[in-house]
Amino acid sequence: FTFYMDCSTQYLPYEKTGFFSKIVQDYLQQHENLKPFYLHNTNLSGVQSAMNARDLHPVNRSVLVEELTLQYQGIAITPKVQEHIQSLLLPNAYTITTAHQPNIFTGPLYFIYKIIHTIKLASELGEKFPEKKFIPVYYMGSEDADLDELGFVHIGGEKLVWNTAQTGAVGRMKVDKAFITLIHSISGQIGVLPFGNELTQLFSTCYTVGKTIQQATLELVNALFGSYGLIVLVPDNARLKSLFAPIIEKELTEQFSQQIVAKTISQLQVNYKVQAAGRPINLFYLIDDKRERIEFKDGVYSVVDLNIQFTKEAILQELQDHPERFSPNVILRGAFQESILPNIVFIGGGERGVPWSR
């Protein structure tokens, strides 16, 4: 953090801001309490270590590039984005990734900050390791179903809320007349500001009636950051999820993730407050306008709120036929990300870049 006063720069330590939890502060300071929980330090040697580890766990680059190419069809992209997509085929190319849900109109400011941080870090690493390629990626959490969290924006102190009856994954929801009304409201507030009219026009171009929120967000973020080579990835994709299918099957049949998370939480709780605990099956069933949790009891898999049941054989067949219907929750989302991207650094909410680890 820097403050500019009389043309001089003053630095404020993270722990002095009051915005970062103890676990984040200790991680940044490489405190002994946290060293058992990660493999790579937050420095250049840690990045090199992460690249070495990633090379031992390659991803299917061909499928990734093919699906990104399809995703960007019909969208004007910069030569730098095109170059970055094709560079993902190279074994010396790695991604620097941030993730966020598709908040309407980008939502909170840290949506933008995380993306800028990702772009900046990728650029700096390119200078430090000129023989490598570092590609900034915004991984869209479009399967999040919490519209109360994603469906509003604050403009000039006023909270503008998208009042829609749509349900399920917010990324699959479609722009409707109520959404267009929000654009008119925003226009009235920012039209007199520098670039206000340009921003309103951008919103009107990206958010058109009938377009999904994930498609509109892809177009918006591409328009804002495509000149820097940022790649937007929408993981709500059957082929990409098919790459993750072995982990989904393991979760369905062994419920392995909660066991691992529970062990880690019990160790972390000695010194820290931990938020996410997970469930026996950390997957949702995603279909049309519904995203509901999958439960297992007495040998039967149930999507309770949809009154759907599967035997073990049936749900594994469903996974084979329709991998896109299985949606990781917060516990498995990161594992999915790391299964489809050649990632070495992840940039989270209140954290600096975290070198990739398994």
List keywords for this structure.
about 350 residues, alpha+beta, 5-stranded mixed β-sheet, about 45% helix, disordered C terminus
Word description of this protein:
With 358 residues, the protein is an alpha+beta fold. It is built from 14 helices and 15 strands. It has a five-stranded mixed beta sheet. A three-stranded antiparallel beta sheet has the order 9-8-13. A three-stranded antiparallel beta sheet has the order 10-11-12. Helix 8 (177-190) packs antiparallel against helix 9 and helix 11 (238-254) runs antiparallel to helix 13 (312-321). It is globular.
Report the principal-axis shape.
Answer: globular
**In whole angstroms, how far apart are the ends?**
30 Å
Helix content: 40-55%
The neighbouring-strand order within the major sheet is: 7-4-3-14-15
Structural class: alpha+beta
What is the gyration radius calculated from CA atoms? 21 Å
How can the largest sheet be summarized?
5 strands, mixed
Q: What amount of the residues lies in strands?
A: 15-25%
Query: How many alpha or pi helices?
Result: 14
Overall number of strands:
15
